[in-house]
Specification:
- With about 400 residues, the chain is of the alpha/beta class.
- The chain contains 15 helices and 9 strands.
- The protein has 2 domains: about 190 residues, 3-Layer(aba) Sandwich (Rossmann fold); about 200 residues, Dehydroquinate synthase-like, alpha domain, CATH 1.20.1090.10.
- Strands 1-2-9-6-5-3-4 form a 7-stranded mixed sheet, sandwiched between helices. The chain has a two-stranded antiparallel sheet with strand order 7-8.
- β1 and β2 form a beta hairpin.
- The model has no long low-confidence stretch (mean pLDDT about 95).
- Keywords: Oxidoreductase.
- It is an enzyme of class 1 (oxidoreductase).
- Pfam families: ADH_Fe_C (PF25137), Fe-ADH (PF00465).
Length: about 400
Amino acid sequence: MWENKIDINQIVEIRAKTTAFFGVGAIKKMADVAKNLSSRGIKKVIVMTGKSSHIKTGAWAVTKQALEANAIEYLLYSEVTPNPTVEQVDEAAARAKSFGAQAVIAIGGGSPIDAAKSVAILISYPEKNASELYELKFAPDTAVPLVAINLTHGTGTEVDRFAVVSIPAKEYKPAIAYDCIYPLYAIDDPALMTKLPAEQTLYVSVDAINHVVEASTTIVTNPFAILLAKETIRLVAKYLPVAVKEPENLTARYYLLYASLIAGTSFDNGLLHFTHALEHPLSAVKPELAHGLGLSMLLPAVVKEIYPASGEVLAEIFEPILPGFKGTADEADKAFAGIRNWLDGIGVTSSLKDEGFDEYMVDRLVDLAFETPSLDGLLAIAPVKATREAVRNIYTNSL
């Protein structure tokens, strides 16, 4: 296989809108990134992280040294939680503005990076707040420069224009998408991900699969999104079991990280529909729910719902997991069972009921899917009409 001929220690540049430094040891490129920030006249930055992964991975030590070597002052905000909230974003933005931050550096997975994107906007719009941003009360066209140091192989947010932040008071978890929040630089270093727990390794990788399943089947998809979808699923199917069994295996982490990156690029081009639109209410109602787990529980039912309209694409991209499928409408139930069996086989066995949801909550979840700002845009581009009945079917079949 050609994958074995790739030198995973060679740092390459992958360009979309963001320049991503990709490969084992890519964190060392922070020296060049900090130098570039300094050359732009940036003297102060806010660094957005979670509580500890930035330290445990060693990413912060390298970043701190790079900033200090280039005389860039920093303010560390290490209070971002999974499923970050507008309150956290507002607090960080207030601190950033008081400090005089001219750029934002994120160290972490999707939560710190998405929160950092939000802060980058609010620094440029000091009169606005995060609730106004996520309730779509204004549309930003500028943000301060952002650098994303990625610590998980699932979201793809380090190379795309999307961000998600929750509004707990309304049980909303909206998404935004603006060109101004493409990171200037991203660091994708698989060596930073070898300490990911097995459970998180599974969830983030299934997140990448969901990105491409949706991106390749929206009504606005394109051949590029579908091409990336095929490769994403092939790589995840091949290397996810290896990474779970051998968490320090850098080759497995390298290809899962690459799969995540191209999946992010896929949905940056093809966009998303049912699975993300329906997961956001789940983790808005239960913030402790891992985003990737929520997506995993919905995926089989979403595939079943859209298979009659998108069977040919789904059969092709899922070939490594569902070999021999032809894409005909009568395979929908078989596809549902096949994906469920694959998830069980890799260790993702939960259903919505296992995570505390029941049939009495379905109506509320359906309401949130249609009421939450931005989710209507995802539902509008699903390959089958996103009626309340269709949404209810997906939730019910995921119980």
